[in-house]
Structure formats: structure tokens, C-alpha cells
């Protein structure tokens, strides 16, 4: 067995949350009478945390609305974060197989911790992952290595026996900084070329290929 622990990103890796995130930001933008964003525009903004998403969604000359939009977007998303989001095809099948094989698993996300925990438990239950980590006031966002290191401690896993699977450059860079391997997913929100450039050891084109990492 090559790896004994797998750290998963959430948005763009385990779950396609683009529609719910787009709806949440646009609800707030409409309330503030600001231009709304398309799903493709939102795709480029998400992955670096809620505050980055909100700042990018606002016009440059209306950053004074940041705090209001942050509040309204968060309230809407809290209530609707599981409505249109879905696990990517094959994810729900592969996770029980990994667990059965004794692989220790964690989720680390730049999404707020309460929302991260809500989405993960809604779609995958409470027993699939031994550690669920999202953003809070005391955590630094990826690409900082703090979250992957916290996950490794929770799983009692050595860096050389773990891999981080994600769809973004922040995931690849966080893995590198934490001293663990990284694999990029082709079904997520960022280009494959960016994943390779920022440290992906390999690109997975289907969840089934995750099994090859532990063979």
C-alpha cells in the first residue's frame, strides 16, 4: 500500500457546489442592486475562501459593500448549501471502498467550517471521514500548510504516507508546503495545466483511479 491516508478537498473535488455558491452570491448581489455573476465567473472566484469570493464578486468601486454582502451571502448559503450541490459521479461509490481497505480519510476546505461540516455529513454521513476541517478565525486557508498538517495529526499519519487530492492550485501548493504528495482531479474547477504547474504528481480523470493510489 503506497498511501495510508488521503486528504480530500471539498468543492470541485468531492462535491460540485458551483450552482449553490452562484445562487448564494447572486442573492446578495441582487439585494444590493449590483451586477450578478455567471456560474463560469464564479468558478474562477471560488476555492480561496469566502472573503476572496465576496471581494471578487463585487465591482472594484463597490468594495464598501463587502461586509453586507459577506453577511447576506453566508446566511443564504447556510440555508441552501445542499440544494443543488451533488457529489461527483463515482465519489459515493469509491469512499466506502477506501474505508473498507483501512484508508484513513479527511476533508480540508477553504469553505467556512460549519458549512464544510454540514455538506460533508449531509452527503457522506458522519463516519466516512475522521477529520473535517474548514475555515474559522484560528485557521489559515490553503495554500498555507496548517490545515493539511492538522489533518495528518488527527489521522496519526506520516507525511510520506499521505496524499492530498484536490482540484486547485491552493491544494497542490498546500500539499507541497506540508511535505506530502498531491494529485489533481480533472473534473474540478481549475485547468489541468495549472495543477501540474503547481505540484500535482498525477492527474486523476475519474474517482475510480483513486484506488490506484493505495495499490
Could you please describe the fold and organization of this structure?
The chain is α/β, with parallel strands linked by helices and 215 residues long. Helix 1 crosses helix 4 (66-80) and helix 3 (50-57) crosses helix 4 (66-80). Strand 7 (181-185), helix 9 and strand 8 (202-204) form a beta-alpha-beta unit. The longest helix is centred in the middle third of the chain and has 15 residues, at 66-80. It has helices at 18-31, 39-45, 50-57, 66-80, 91-100, 113-124, 146-155, 169-178, 192-197; strands spanning 5-8, 15-16, 86-87, 104-112, 131-135, 162-166, 181-185, 202-204.
Unreliable sequence segments: none
For the residues shown, what is the average pLDDT?
96
Strand order across the largest sheet:
5-4-1-6-7-8
Q: Compute the gyration radius: what is it?
A: 17 Å
User: What's the total helix number?
Assistant: 9
Strand elements, count: 8
Overall, the morphology is globular
Which secondary-structure class do the elements indicate?
alpha/beta
- Major pleated sheet: 6 strands, parallel
The CATH architecture category of the largest domain equals: 3-Layer(aba) Sandwich
User: Would you state the CATH class of the largest domain?
Assistant: Alpha Beta
Q: Work out the strand percent.
A: 15-25%
Span of the ends, CA to CA:
5 Å
| The number of domains | 2
Instruction: Output the CATH homologous superfamily of the largest domain.
Output: HAD superfamily/HAD-like
Series of secondary-structure elements, N-terminal to C-terminal: EEHHHHEHEHEHEHEHE
What's the CATH topology name of the largest domain?
A: Rossmann fold
Amino acid at each position: 500500500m503506497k498511501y495510508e491516508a488521503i486528504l480530500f478537498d471539498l468543492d470541485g473535488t468531492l462535491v460540485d457546489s458551483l450552482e449553490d455558491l452562484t445562487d448564494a452570491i447572486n442573492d446578495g448581489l441582487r439585494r444590493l442592486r449590483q451586477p450578478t455573476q455567471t456560474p463560469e465567473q464564479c468558478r474562477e472566484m471560488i476555492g480561496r475562501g469566502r472573503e476572496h469570493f465576496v471581494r471578487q464578486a463585487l465591482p472594484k468601486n463597490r468594495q464598501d459593500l463587502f461586509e453586507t454582502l459577506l453577511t447576506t451571502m453566508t446566511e443564504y448559503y447556510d440555508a441552501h448549501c445542499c440544494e443543488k450541490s451533488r457529489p461527483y459521479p463515482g465519489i459515493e461509490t469509491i469512499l466506502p471502498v477506501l474505508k473498507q481497505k483501512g484508508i484513513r480519510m479527511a476533508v480540508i476546505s477553504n469553505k467556512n467550517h460549519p458549512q464544510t461540516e454540514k455538506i460533508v455529513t449531509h452527503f457522506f454521513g458522519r463516519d466516512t471521514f475522521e477529520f473535517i476541517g474548514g475555515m474559522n478565525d484560528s485557521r489559515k486557508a490553503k495554500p498555507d500548510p496548517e490545515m493539511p498538517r492538522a489533518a495528518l495529526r488527527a489521522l496519526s499519519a506520516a507525511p510520506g504516507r499521505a496524499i492530498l487530492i484536490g482540484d486547485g492550485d491552493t491544494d497542490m501548493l498546500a500539499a507541497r508546503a506540508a511535505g506530502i504528495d498531491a494529485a489533481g482531479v480533472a473534473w474540478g474547477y481549475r485547468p489541468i495545466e495549472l495543477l501540474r504547474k503547481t505540484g500535482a504528481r498525477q492527474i486523476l480523470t475519474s474517482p475510480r483511479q483513486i484506488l490506484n493510489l493505495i495499490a
